[in-house]
Amino acid sequence: MTDGVFGRESGHEQVVYCQDPATGLKAIIAIYSTALGPALGGTRFYPYRRESDALEDVLALSKGMAYKNALAGLDLGGGKAVIIGDPATVKTEGLLRAYGRFVRSLGGRYITACDVGTYVADMDVVARETTFVTGRSADDGGAGDSSVLTAFGVFQGIRACAEHRWGSTDLTGRRVGVQGVGKVGHYLVGHLVKAGAEVVISDVSRTAIERVRATHPQVEVSDSLVDDRLDVYAPCALGGALNDETVPRLRTEIVCGAANNQLAHAGIDKVLADRDILYAPDYLVNAGGVIQVSDELHGFDFDRAKRKATGIFETTKAVFALAAAEGVPPATAADRLAERRISEIGRLRTILTP
């Protein structure tokens, strides 16, 4: 287990490679910042084609977590982990417990949770080797499925976008496209349907689509939401959905979704702004999940966590107000707010206490 030089070049505090040949574990843990507290972020289990792809992903995701936790008002830093491999074929109790021991070896600098490819049951297994884990089942003293409040928070973000763009949070009759209806997306669809929106969905998994339609038969299915005329486009699958190929084709007024790292590269947010498409930064609106799991650290109370997640509405409005005042895209405004809090509150650690 060694610190990676990449962490120093990218601004990260620490990058750790974890390997256990006996169980097949190959993982990378990236800690971007502990200025506000221990670095909290989920574990992604994914069959990356190359180790360099996994490293690039974990570095970006961990920085996003630092900004997300800062904007959510949490006293937590940002970190993330990736396990390299197909969870459907290589995930075992032994592998997860080996991973848990690596998390434990960091002494609380990093606290893990669920992400793509990992679930509540997996966190219960990891917790058998370390206490530095959230997103556990209720039976194990945890908050359960963090997708519940992730979707709720994104819904609050969409409401804030609607108010900013149209002067009202009312979504009745608004056409909303949800790209990816897995863990978070299918919960988001429920909120949107209840709010009276006309929902269109897309997913590479027919099973995921049929699960949604079994509950909400009125939902439409599209092969290409990017090309559909929408009021709101909600990317809720993997990152990079907003890129040089997709953004020019978008026919929507608002982009607000749950997927992490939606902007394929710097400058895409400016292209969206130039096209008069209102973009809600992903790490701002998808913070409901981390709010939910972080509440475990204080003895989980769902109602308390949901009240905190409701604050995403006001924070989104504050980001739009700052963007307008400073003449910058919302993504830049969100970065500035997060960086300001990390700097101002993190500085307090220089004041020594007994």
Averaging pLDDT over every residue, what do you get?
94
Radius of gyration equals 19 Å
Do you know the CATH architecture of the largest domain?
A: 3-Layer(aba) Sandwich
Task: Find the CATH superfamily of the largest domain.
Answer: NAD(P)-binding Rossmann-like Domain
The CATH C-level class name of the largest domain: Alpha Beta
Provide the number of structural domains.
2
What distance separates the N and C termini? 33 Å
CATH topology grouping of the largest domain: Rossmann fold
Coarse shape: globular
Structural class: alpha/beta
Strand segment tally: 12
Q: How would you sum up the major sheet? A: 6 strands, mixed
- Helix tally equals 14
| SSE ordering | HEEEEHEHHEHHEHEHEEEHEHHHHH
Which consecutive residue ranges, at least 5 long each, have pLDDT under 50? 1-8
Percent of residues in beta strands: 5-15%
Helix content: 40-55%
List keywords for this structure.
six-stranded parallel beta sheet; alpha/beta; Rossmann fold; 354 residues; 12 strands; six-stranded mixed beta sheet
Polypeptide structure, described:
With 354 residues, the protein is α/β, with parallel strands linked by helices. The chain folds into 2 domains: 122 residues, Rossmann fold; 195 residues, 3-Layer(aba) Sandwich (Rossmann fold). It has 14 helices and 12 strands. Strands 1, 2, 3, 4, 5 and 6 form a 6-stranded mixed β-sheet that branches. Strands 9-8-7-10-11-12 form a 6-stranded parallel β-sheet, with helices on both faces. Helix 2 crosses helix 14, helix 6 runs parallel beside helix 12 and helix 6 packs across helix 13. The longest helix has 21 residues. It is globular and about 50 Å long. The N terminus is likely disordered.
